[in-house]
Amino acid sequence: MISEKKYILAVDQGTQGPKLAIVSTEGEVIDWAFQETPINALSGGIVEQDPDDWWEAIKYAAKKVIDNGKVKVEDIVGVCNTSQWSGTVAVDKDGNHLMNSIIWMDTRGAKYIEKLNKGLIKVSGYNLRKILSLLKRTAGGPASHGKDSIAHILVIKDEFPDIYERTFVFLEPQDYVNLKLTGKFAASTASIHLHWITDTRDLNNIHYSKKLLRMFKVDKTKFPELKNCTDVLGPLKNEVADELGLERSTKVVMGAPDIHTATIGSGAVNDYEAHIYIGTSDWIFTHIPYKKTDIVHNLGSIPSAIPGRYMVGNEQNIAGGALSFLRDKILYHKDELLKEEALPDVYKIFDQIVKKVPAGSNNLIFTPWLIGERSPVDDPTIRGGLYNLSFEMSREHIIRAIFEGVGYNIKWLLTVIENFIRKWVIKERRIPKKSNIIPELNMIGGGAQSDIWCQIMADILNRKIKQVVDPIQANARGAAYIASVALGYLKWDEIQRCCEISKEFTPNPENRKIYDKLFAEYVNIYKIMGKTYKRLNKE
């Protein structure tokens, strides 16, 4: 192991904008900066971003942290990027993007996935013959919501045929940023997965599948060379190094999408250790040693950024985004009366309000399905709502119900993830069958900064919650860990030691009865309202 103190410039390009962080090779965040980027959301399921906005924001934030001078430029030995996943950038042979990026919230591809799955015999909405071929090679397949990368490409092929023909390669946001940094076209074996065209049965030989390419009727020539997440893609382009103020010899490591780096940056890197992320969306992921699928609940093994490892879990569409919705669309709507007023730090205010409301919010239930849901049910038609609202309630009850509704949704997902790994864990650890399969979870993301939300999660899930230090920097820290391993400064089994926990939250047994009752009703709401949502929102 190399002993000198060195640093990684980590690029965490999220949906709201990039965070640029200088992180030591052992995961200490020295400095960071954020620059917001706009989202173009239109009717018809269109959600896009301009890749030029990404790049300008990345350069601005990078120069800000580098120019702050908290570390010597010559000690920044690598750049590693992690970005929002399941987005698509069509680029020409000169690396110019040909249209806005279709990002992970875009649902235009749903009709193409529905068309793909037409047939007499179906399983969970999938064409039986096609899903068997997909499961054999990938342990999954494109979800019906149309947000996977392959669905975006089918949209482009059918609705923008001129762009499809002019496209040299399709790149994920992460791989597009790497192209801008190095001038090289490549995808990581992690970032390519939601194209559903790679064979992942042998983690040492992930490759494009001719059979799957034929199934989706896409051209292999339009997809880039595959590399491992720990591969060095190359040095920075001279002009990029000069503009940012870095050494021209600074190496760019491939990196991985945000879910993969968050899993590593959470410190929960051993098999069956799990983490919760709460940002705009939420997810739960854990590493596993096997390839397996639960098609009913939209779960399957995916390649980890750690070579030779799989992960399982899934993302849910809205978590902290529900609080942003409350702030921006209801409490502080951008109308004429408020346009000159500066917004307070409402999230800290929300925390103080929630602390005063008893657990269960007087039996008020909020469902955070504002843009449908993807797991444990894949249903783009379901919507958010407040149930059991009564006249004696106030905004305090509504705000706490939002915090708790996200918790119920996560518990719904945790239940199916635990069932997915139950047999393996019981066999390997020789624990009683009724034990909690995942007894504790590390918590990261913006939501993890809230002590009250961490406690609510512990109470609803009935699990210990470990609040990671600098929880909003987990993605950047994970990217830095990948680069540190790639460049020889760290080993995978040293990451848990490097990742610090700030607080632990244990379940309050007094809240067990109320939360178990409300969670059962939460699931019942979907069972009862699912058909109504479908009638109201099916295009």
Architecture overview:
By secondary structure, the chain is of the alpha+beta class. 36% of the residues lie in helices and 20% in strands. The chain has 16 helices and 28 strands. The strands form nine sheets. A seven-stranded mixed sheet has the order 22-23-19-18-26-27-28, sandwiched between helices. Strands 3-2-1-6-17-16 form a six-stranded mixed sheet, with helices on both faces. Strand 18 (274-278) and strand 19 form a beta hairpin. Helix 9 packs across helix 14 and helix 12 (395-429) crosses helix 13. The longest helix is centred in the C-terminal third of the chain and has 35 residues, at 395-429. The protein is globular. The model has no long low-confidence stretch (mean pLDDT 94).
Fraction of residues in H or I helices: 25-40%
Task: Report the major sheet.
Answer: 7 strands, mixed
Radius of gyration: 22 Å
Structural class determined from secondary elements? alpha+beta
Q: What amount of the residues lies in strands?
A: 15-25%
Low-confidence segments:
none
Q: Largest sheet, order of strands side by side?
A: 22-23-19-18-26-27-28
Task: State the total count of DSSP E strands.
Answer: 28
- Alpha plus pi helix count: 16
Shape: globular
Give the CA-CA distance, first to last residue: 57 Å
Instruction: State mean pLDDT (0 to 100 scale).
Output: 94
